[in-house]
Amino acid sequence: MPVDVEFRRQVLDINIKAKLQFCYQCNKCTTDCPVANNATKPYNPRQIMLQALLGLKEPLLNAPDNFNLYGCTACDTCDEVCPGDLELTEVFMLLKNMMTQANKAPKAYVGQAKAIADSGYAIPLQAAIDRRRDQMGLPKATLAKADEIKSLFAAVGFPERVKFPAAEPKEANE
Question: Which CATH code is given to the segment(s) 5-101?
Answer without folding.
Answer: 1.10.1060.10
